Amino acid sequence: MKHRYIAQPKFWTNYRKLSVSHQKSAQAAWRLFKIDPFDPRLRTHRINLLTAIFRRPVYAVVIEGDLRAIFYIDGDTVVTVNIGSHDVYEA
Question: In the chain, how many domains are there?
Fold first, then answer.
């Protein structure tokens, strides 16, 4: 399935706060993510707390170490919600 990708403003705000090295890691992960958000190399996993809050499945991908990107899928659109440490799991 071909997806459209959009990012919420909070994602971009927090992306700009990342170190240059984390931004580069995020860009490398993005190359995999845009092909398949569930690529095993991204270790995509469901976040149950956010799933309950958003009332839809919400997932995180592991970019590196403690760096995660949060997203959900709405039809053919993948919406990235936030990026950062495990703190992004909090609503």
Answer: 1
∠ CA 89-50-82, rounded to 5° = 50
CA 72 from chain centre, in angstroms, equals 8
pLDDT one-digit tens code per residue, 59-82: 999 999 999 999 999 999 999 999
Find, among 64, 78, 67, the residue nearest to 34 by Cα. 78
55 φ/ψ sector (left φ>0, alpha ψ -120 to 50, else beta) = left
**Coil, strand or helix: which one is 5?**
strand
Domain that holds residue 56: 4-89
